[in-house]
Amino acid sequence: MKLAYIRWRDAVSEEASAAGSNPAHAALVELHEVGFLLGESGEAVVIGMEFNQDTDVQPGRWRLHIPRVSIQEMRVVDLEKAFPVKRRKK
Questions:
Q1: Of 28, 34, 40, 38, which Cα lies nearest the Cα of 70?
Q2: Which of 10, 24, 46, 52 is the most buried (most CB within 10 A)?
Q3: Partner residues linked to 49 by β-bridges
Q4: For residues 8-17, b (16+ Cβ closer than 10 Å) or e, as one string?
């Protein structure tokens, strides 16, 4: 199993109820995600994550599909290398 860290950029939404008072500035948000690497294609990377009850997201397992064109940085490591099993001292 592989663990992935992905830094990527995505769209931003904002309330525009007072559109005349604030000029629009074109911008993207930078996101950082960590999850299990579940799949890859030429267009996207899929990572799996779990959320518990301490978040604003529905608890459970989630898949996030990230467009490759949006990825700024991606690091993948074997889970065993990221968190090696410590040997007990005898």
A1: 28
A2: 46
A3: 62
A4: beeeeeeeee
Nearest to 74 by CA among 34, 39, 38: 34
**Tens digit of each residue's pLDDT (9 = 90 or more) over 45-90:** 999 998 777 767 677 888 999 999 999 999 999 998 988 888 887 7
Whether the Cβ atoms of residue 2 and residue 46 lie closer than 8 Å to each other: no
pTM (predicted TM-score): 0.80
Can you give the length of the chain in residues?
90
| Rounded-to-integer distance, Cα 48 and Cα 64, Å | 6
> What pLDDT band is residue 19 in, cutting at 50, 70 and 90?
low
